[in-house]
Amino acid sequence: MKALPPPRTDAKALRDALAPYTERSTVLALAIFARDAGLLAVATGLALWVESYALKTLFAVIAGTAIAALFVIGHDGAHCACTGSKRLNALLGRLALLPSLHNFTLWRIVHNRMHHRDTCVKGRNSWSPLSKVEYDALPYWRRCRERLYRTPVLGFAAYYAVNRWWKEKFFPPRHLRTTQRLSQWRDFALLLAALVGLFAAFWGATLVIEHLAFWEAVLWGFVIPQVVWNTLMGFTVYAQHTHPQVPWFRTDEEAATHSQAALSVHMVFPKWYGWLSNHIMEHPAHHVNTKVPFYRLAAAQRRLNTLLGETAVVERFSPVAFWQTMRRCKLYDYDGHRWLGYDGSPTAEVAAATAVGRASAPATG
User: Which residues pair with 333 in a beta bridge?
Assistant: First the structure.
């Protein structure tokens, strides 16, 4: 087994350094929620109202983007990082997760307790890579499915909708039945009520808009926005923890020795994308300190990158660079800590990302 360089254990110093960015603003959080919810409502309404199929598709895509932005607010509400009130965080979180059909209680269990505790642990997180032995043992159709999942663009929505959302983020699964079971079912009932209300609204729209058929309302008001949202989410969770420099582990004990900053990627996008996505790609700062609200993540990430220096995993997004990452990161050698191709040939040695942080990281920003 390849011995990774010993990581520096300065997680608390890094978390304390980001503490000044944890200040929450209820007014700002509510204003951004209103902006994104309003954008979703207007875009959906226009997708139903206009007759041009091209314009319908455009507004449906905008609606899907708004769902993704609202999801980030719901994510922060689940972390109690959105506003200064615990109850308001829970309410805002539930409302913001409704358009993406995410069960608030299940999200808190799976994301807060598992993802943040077991980051980059095989089988615990999104896009966990298979070993060569595991991949070869799959039946042919399963190998085809794995290849589809790791195909640029086409696989993102399929992976997230099937492997993450359907399995444990919508209705209460059996393997989580002992944890907050009643709350899981209450939030599931809330999602069903929201779906019934949405489809009732589609039916009502067909009575008002003469040219609109019910199937068209469902297609442009629900199906296309959901595909867009799931594509964006699949891309996001892939990019946040899949990179030639990011190691994966078999057990949470192995992963626990590494700082969260080493197990997540800062994918750099233009400022407009940060505004549109509520800064979801400033991800290492969130992993270091989950109480930093999304509207302060950009500043917190800049501070974290300064503290980490050359050990920060930073990648400026470009289609070519991202395609290269997807081409190289197919399977993983958990003993040798290398990324592999489907044929088992090494494509990337994981080394730089294990030397994490600076031992002398200051405690304040």
Answer: 338
| Nearest C-alpha neighbor of 130 from the set 250, 256, 254 | 250
Per-domain residue ranges of the chain: 11-354
Cβ count within 10 A of residue 132: 17
Q: Which two tokens stand for residue 70?
A: 């609202």
User: Using CA atoms, how far apart are residues 275 and 81, in angstroms rounded to an integer?
Assistant: 18
- What does the alpha-carbon distance between residue 4 and residue 20 come to, in Å, rounded to a whole number? 33
Note the pTM of the prediction, 2 decimals.
Answer: 0.90
% helix, strand, coil for the chain, step of 5 = 60, 5, 35
- Rama region for 55: left / alpha / beta (φ>0; ψ in -120 to 50; rest): alpha
Please state, for a pLDDT cut of 90, what percent of the chain lies above it: 76
Q: What are phi and psi of 265, to 5 degrees?
A: -110, 135
DSSP secondary structure string for all residues of 114-165 = IITTSTTBTTTSTTPPPPHHHHHHS-HHHHHHHHHHTSTTHHHHHHIIIIII
Mean pLDDT of the chain: 90
